[in-house]
Amino acid sequence: xxxxxxxxxxxxxxxxxxxxxxxxxxxxxxxxxxxxxxxxxxxxxxxxxxxxxxxxxxxxxxxxxxxxxxxxxxxxxxxxxxxxxxxxxxxxxxxxxxxxxxxxxxxxxxxxxxxxxxxxxxxxxxxxxxxxxxxxxxxxxxxxxxxxxxxxxxxxxxxxxxxxxxxxxxxxxxxxxxxxxxxxxxxxxxxxxxxxxxx
Amino acid sequence: xxxxxxxxxxxxxxxxxxxxxxxxxxxxxxxxxxxxxxxxxxxxxxxxxxxxxxxxxxxxxxxxxxxxxxxxxxxxxxxxxxxxxxxxxxxxxxxxxxxxxxxxxxxxxxxxxxxxxxxxxxxxxxxxxxxxxxxxxxxxxxxxxxxxxxxxxxxxxxxxxxxxxxxxxxxxxxxxxxxxxxxxxxxxxxxxxxxxxxx
Lengths: 199, 199
Prior knowledge:
homodimer; four-stranded parallel beta sheet; two-stranded antiparallel sheet; 6 strands; alpha/beta; Dna Topoisomerase Vi A Subunit, Chain: A, domain 2; Helicase, Ruva Protein, domain 3
């Protein structure tokens, strides 16, 4: 690139691989890095390198973890009876941030997407069934995304788990808090009416 | 952070140090990195580490460079007679991208800002005067930002360079291309009128 030395160009090229970061943002970030403390740049680089060395997949819940089993699976204060099933590790973090859940988790690492060639064997469903087989789990809360794939995955899990005597529930769909009925899309409003609760 | 393993938390913390990247964006980027190819993550980390090892400050123009002297200073096709003075290396890249300049550059690495304790000795002004002293330079184009500090720096440089027989010019200020007279701020419109050119 014109007027940009090669080492900087390399950083810009690597940064543009990140989602939502175009060439302009990447250039701004790269120039910022040339002005920041050596410690900060090395801190980021080392944190990135450590990511692959120190990050495990929990052998119980298949979540990303700093150790195996993960913090959530090894916490004795959490209930073994309820398991929240999510698509990705990022979803787990979101549910955990809400503070409304004190059971265990299971990360599917994707959703059923037959058109993209993703079948049940590509997800961590076998691991979930094994956990159910251990007999402690009484309820699965399926918190996959409210998309076609997420819904299909939820239905598939319900069909597998119900015959094993496990209650399967789906997180509620409806208007987001602070939302506006006037501007809600039809599908959301439909779900909100369908899922109404007596006051 | 809740539900986020320590190695990931570390990457998030380092990313939030970058300008314009808050916790939410950093979290999204970090989770993306856990899903990307090992090569990509290492590529970024290594590019960052190389930044400090392979990036030089050109001993002639004080720009960031992949070697010393930089590409611009060692290009024999560029004119030695005109020097474009900019605040930062990023400004140099912007002027270079415009494609409208084939002379040399000089990077001040800042602007005069007496209130922040930045005086002439903190900028690369001595280096510029030494270059003028070599006798090849006929014109300085001062492309500092159109801010109070940038203007003050431009005036200061003009005062130093003019007595040495060098023409000092300032880049034009006015309406940006594609701009709108109706919505232009007063200062810009004032400069645009003041700097009008006969057609």
